[in-house]
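User: Good morning. I'm curious how NAP would be positioned relative to this chain. Could you predict the structure with it bound?
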Amino acid sequence: MRVLIAGCGDLGTEAGLRFAAAGFSVLGWRRSPENLPAPITGQAADLTGRTGELPRIPAGTDVVVIAVAAGERSEAAYRAAYVDGTANVLDALERDGVRPRRILFVSSTAVYGDADGGEVDEHTPPDPASVTGEVILEAERLLHDRRPDAVVLRLAGIYGPGRTRLIDTVSAGTAVVPAGTRLTNRIHRDDAAAAIVHLSTQVSHPDPLYVGVDEEPVELADVLQFLAAELRTELPAPSDSGSSRGGNRRISNRRLLGTGFEFAYPTFREGYRAVLAGTGVRHP
Ligand SMILES: NC(=O)c1ccc[n+]([C@@H]2O[C@H](COP(=O)([O-])OP(=O)(O)OC[C@H]3O[C@@H](n4cnc5c(N)ncnc54)[C@H](OP(=O)(O)O)[C@@H]3O)[C@@H](O)[C@H]2O)c1
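Assistant: Good morning! Here's the predicted structure, ligand included:
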């Protein structure tokens, strides 16, 4: 069994290690593959196609995961990574006559609009509030036009080992506590990686779309309060100066749970406790 992870960064590496543990031979593509840990085989590849053709895809590749991220927050960078990257991977599969059983594209809940506190799930029409969200949606559509059987996994904000921005601001006393409502949705990196492997290997007839989010949409102020209590520190007074990004939505993971997926970190409490305890592995 073979898997190709195109854009093998933090999430792709964690998924790759889990594929390897499940018996897969794992090939990881990125521009700087030197630091990919064994047993992942790293190979240099630029998905944007700027440096020429993609490498040959090994015959017998069963699963392809596209988990690329853009290097910067601009429309051009997002288009190159997500839209061109996805098209180039599909072209390379055709070029090499490889027809994987499953293609999974890691997307983002940024394709949804503001829900005014309401529930969002796979039936909610996308309505991106940002141009980067529009470009990711374009990549999803390109993929489904060419491979209707592909699986799109829209992840909410990823946290986990090495992703300690909120913890750091609470520790430093610089957390911006929203004065008003600011609903947030998140998923631990390891659960996101486990969901990729689960949807690629354990679900025989998957839906074309899943959201990857834990079991508890939560006010950002409550997460900060929890972290402050764990760190035995005080939060600054609430202010209105925080970013309004986040979409004010309660994202439901009902469809993912319906496939039999079980979360290791069902809510931010278990997940952040693990991060604070230093459990989990940080990848280069
Ligand atoms: N972070 C979040 O909260 C969040 C939320 C929702 C969805 N997501 C999605 O989750 C996915 C994975 O995120 P992540 O945190 O694992 O990101 P990451 O650690 O930055 O990994 C992305 C990888 O893509 C590679 N890459 C970038 N441009 C490339 C190119 N042109 N050709 C080949 N590889 C390229 C990078 O490696 P090189 O630089 O070596 O090429 C990097 O290792 C992304 O699709 C992201 O949109 C993230």
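The helical segments are 10-21, 75-96, 131-146, 165-172, 189-201, 220-230, 254-258, 268-276. The mean pLDDT is 95.
Let me know if you'd like a different ligand tried.
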